[in-house]
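Hey, resending since the last one bounced:
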Amino acid sequence: MGLLDALLGGRRKLKVPASDRLFAMSTAQITLETGLGLKHRNVAGIAFQSVATADFKQMVQETEELLRSAAEDTGTKIETSTDGYGYQWIVLRDDDFDDLVVSINTVSSSLEGSGYGDRVLAAVFAFEEEGRPIYFIYNYKRGFFYPFVPGPGEKQRNNEREFQLKAQVGTELPIEPEMARWFPLWDIPL
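The structure tokens again:
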């Protein structure tokens, strides 16, 4: 363990991808809705692994308070939950898509700025096509999006539709080039 690691309490700062990649979703949303006919569900969420320390809990609480304060102007509704895998979710609901992107960035920036960037799993933006859910997942560790389309049946994926979406939005979103890293997120609380 180096001196910097000792000063940071054993936490190492990860080299994180450029945060501006998340904002590519704001412009891609227009193409998804007008060009592809997908409808945004007015909801997005961010999942992260909780840490049982007082400073982590305080940082999450302060972030939620910041979001709630901003929500007075934007109308964003904030919910929290924990999924079956133990990941904590902050779920945001808002009719204005850009407010969702900015709020997701607020949460991730707070976690990264407090030294917990390695705890952020993903941001998820929910769309639908003919009543069926389609998710665009942003993997923070890789700095790429990928589509996740649940298929019929339990824990089935519609890989064909995922590949089509990759081809249709790959010029607007930084899409994960290694499809083996397109991990499904089951039971997304959106």
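Residues 5 and 11 are 6 Å apart (CA to CA).

Sorry for the duplicate.
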